Fold Probable N-acetyl-gamma-glutamyl-phosphate reductase, chloroplastic.
Amino acid sequence: MQTAVARPSARGVVGRTRSRAGLVVRASKDTCRVAVLGASGYTGAEVVRLSALHPNISITALTGEKQAGKPFAEVFPHLVAASNVGPLVKISDVEFADVDAVFCCLPHATTQQIIKGLPKHLKIVDLSADFRLRDVDTYAEWYGNEHAAPELQKTAVYGLTELARDDIKKARLVANPGCYPTTVQIPLVPLLEGGMISKDDIIIDAKSGVSGAGRAAKESNLYVEIAEGINAYGVSSHRHMPEIEQGLSDAAGADVKVSFTPHLMCMSRGMQSTMYVKLAGGATPDSLRAALSERYASEPFVRVLPKGSVPHTRHVRGSNFCLIGVFPDRLPGRAIVICVIDNLVKGASGQAMQNLNLVMGFPETTGLMQLAMFP
Ligand SMILES: NC(=O)C1=CN([C@@H]2O[C@H](COP(=O)(O)OP(=O)(O)OC[C@H]3O[C@@H](n4cnc5c(N)ncnc54)[C@H](OP(=O)(O)O)[C@@H]3O)[C@@H](O)[C@H]2O)C=CC1
Ligand SMILES: CC(=O)N[C@@H](CCC(=O)OP(=O)(O)O)C(=O)O
C-alpha cells in the first residue's frame, strides 16, 4: 500500500486537495486509488491488512457508519501501522473523483442502494451477496426484498476467480462469491463438468468461524452462546443454497439441488465444507483427486493434497489458499471431498483482492502470497 504525502489537519490526516475523506493521491497507471466502503467491519479491515503489502494500491478513503468519525487505528488497533489514511468517514463524504476502485464491504440490501448511486468511472468489487444471483426473482425469494438495481445486476460478473478469470478482467462490477459457495464450487465444479460425480446426490456439511457473521453485535454471537459447542443454523434454508446451486447447475448443464447444512464453530476464522458425493462415469476417489490436481495445477491459491492428507482450517489461517482433500467413502461408489479456506481471505477479502488485480491488470497474486499463520 502506498502512503501518500499528507499533512495533519484539525480533522486528522487530510490530503492536499478538496477530499474530506482521507488522502488524495494523483492518478497514475501503476496506482489504483481505492475506497473501502465498510472499513469498520471485518472484511473491510482485512482488505486494509492485505493492501498494506500491495505495491499498486493506495487507499484514499475508509468508510464506516456508526463508527464514522473515529480514527481507523482506534477501531482496529492491529492495523495501526497500515492506517495513516485519515479517519473513517461516511460514504457521502467520499470524494469519488479521487478514487479508481471500490471494495464494497457492506451488508446485503444496503449494498445495492449504495452501488447504484456510485459514479460510473469506478470499478467495484462487491463482497456482499447482492449481485451474485443472476435471477432477481430468486434473489427476492431468498433475501426477502425486491432487487433495487436489476439492470446493474445484469452487468455483474460472478467472481470465483479460478473459474471466471477472463470475464472478471473485463468487468466493471464483480460480485465476489460467498464464503461457503467458494468452498463448494472450487472442488465440485470441475467434477460436475467432467461428469465424474452425480448431480443428484450432493450433501454438504459446512462449518464456519464466527467472524463469518460480521462484527456487528448480535446476541447469538456472544462468547457464552458460541463457546464450548457447535450448532447448525439455517438448516434447509440457508441463503447460500441458491448461489451454490446456480454455480453447480452451470457446471452440470442441468438443474442441481444440494443438501447443505452450515454450522457455527467456536473459532474466530476458518471454514470447512465436507462434501459427500456419488461417483459417476466410472470415476474413483483417486481419479477425482487426479482430475482436481490437473485442473488446478497452475493455480497459485488452490492446492489438492496428496492421498491420505487431511486439510485443516488452521493451515490456511490468514492466507488466500484453498486446500482440498479427496477420500474414499466406506459406502461403495461414493467419495468425500473436503475443502478449507479462511472465510475472511479466500472467502472474502483475499478473493476480492485477486479480482481487483485482474480488473486493474495487475498480476493476480499481488499482495496475496503470504502463507498461513501457524501455530
Ligand atoms: N465476514 C465474512 O466472513 C464474509 C462476509 N461477506 C459479506 O461481506 C459484507 C461485509 O461483511 P463483514 O465485514 O463481515 O460485515 P461487518 O458487519 O463486520 O461490517 C459491515 C460494515 O458495513 C458498515 N455499514 C453497516 N450498515 C451500513 C449502512 N447502512 N450504510 C453504510 N455502511 C454501513 C458498517 O459500519 P459501522 O460498523 O461503522 O456501522 C461496517 O463497516 C457483507 O455483505 C457480508 O455478508 C462475504 C464473505 C465472507
Ligand atoms: C457464520 C455466518 O453467519 N456466516 C454468514 C456467511 C458469510 C458470508 O459469506 O456471507 P455473505 O453471503 O453475506 O457474503 C452466514 O451464514 O450468513
In short: Confidence is low (pLDDT under 50) at residues 2-22.
